[in-house]
Amino acid sequence: MSTQQTPDMRARIATAKKIVVKIGSSSLTGEDLAVAPEKIDAIVDAVQARMATSDVIVVSSGAVAAALKPLGLSSRPQDLATKQAAAAVGQVHLAQEWARSFARYGRATAQVLLTAADAGHRDRTRNIQRTVDRLRQLGVVPIVNENDTVATSEMHFGDNDRLSAIVATLTSADALVLLSDVDGLYDRNPVDPGAQFIPEVVTGKDLDGVAAGGGGRVGTGGMASKVSAARLAARSGVPVLLTSAAKVDAALADAAVGTVFHPRPDKRLSAWKFWALYAADSGGTLHLDAGAVEAVTQRGKSLLAVGIVDVTGEFRAGEIVDIVGPDSHIVGRGEVKFDSSTLRTIIGRSTAELDEQHRRPVVHADYLSNYASRL
């Protein structure tokens, strides 16, 4: 595994002026599946101490888990209707516990519930940024969670690990701390006596051979979700510390625990490209031939009409669209310059065959973000 720059990156996280702290459901609940006040108090103590030098945004899981005991459920519901009902009940309990705990320090909290649709629209994204920024100016701790009550199975973040990475990027955070019930990343299940701890991830090669599992009894994330979220945040230039909630004091002090995910300056996405790839709604799909895929993903070229073989969906000029290759796999996203009706009349035609008003790129390279580059 890579070993370069670990002390510097940990120091960067330890001195970050704005951080996002994400807490998993298992770190907030007890064996009886109810919200555990003592666990929340321990996290709040550490967050309050860090707020002497930094602004902190909390991304909290646990709404559905918090409803299990009040509703008499023995496990996390799987059907959408029951999950949303549980979220509606649990969100109240969870918000009350965060407010109670921070009140010990005379600090107010604010509940910020988001859906993927909120992050997918530019105007809503700007409103999120302004609201969270103003809350911080007022000394209020934003408690962010996915709004499971209204999110649909087709339009959701999937888990709060990914949500925390998006929040860290949208709010221009300097670091992301992911807290769960495991003290860091291992190459296999840590209960295995032969499991090897991975102190840092500098590039994707450091993840070769790593087997990360799924969610547990009350959560939806699991280690695979956390690794994905950490890499997502790192792509936008945000360093990530992954460790257990039991080590929250050290995590928010010198960051000398857990696994650090390094951002790669040479792979960093601009804020717009990150938004287009991971948060924006898609208005439709452009289907490319193999040559066009190679041009836009490997050579950084703009997408021209000649390389498009089909268009699906109805969209206007200026919307974000998915870009797929011959195998139907999404290779990127971009801001399309023509509406779908116009585009269908020019696809497959070379620039020389088009009239002057249609000769511009369908998606300019500056407004095209692809998934080809990895950490």
Please characterize this protein's 3D structure.
This protein is an alpha/beta fold and 375 residues long. The protein has two domains: 9-272, Acetylglutamate kinase-like (Carbamate kinase), CATH 3.40.1160; 282-374, PUA domain (Archaeosine Trna-guanine Transglycosylase, Chain: A, domain 4). Helices cover 34% and strands 18% of the residues. The chain is built from twelve helices and 15 strands. It has helices spanning 6-14, 37-50, 63-71, 80-103, 116-120, 122-137, 160-170, 222-235, 248-251, 271-278, 290-298, 340-344; strands at 18-23, 55-60, 109-114, 141-146, 175-180, 185-186, 197-198, 200-201, 240-244, 259-261, 285-288, 308-312, 320-324, 330-335, 368-370. The strands form three sheets. The chain has an eight-stranded mixed sheet with strand order 3-4-2-1-5-9-10-8, sandwiched between helices. A five-stranded mixed sheet has the order 12-11-13-14-15. A hairpin with a 5-residue loop joins strand 13 (320-324) and strand 14 (330-335). Helix 2 (37-50) packs across helix 4 (80-103), helix 3 crosses helix 4 (80-103) and helix 7 packs parallel to helix 8. It is globular and about 70 Å long. The two termini are 14 Å apart. Mean pLDDT is 85; it is low at 1-7 and 214-221.
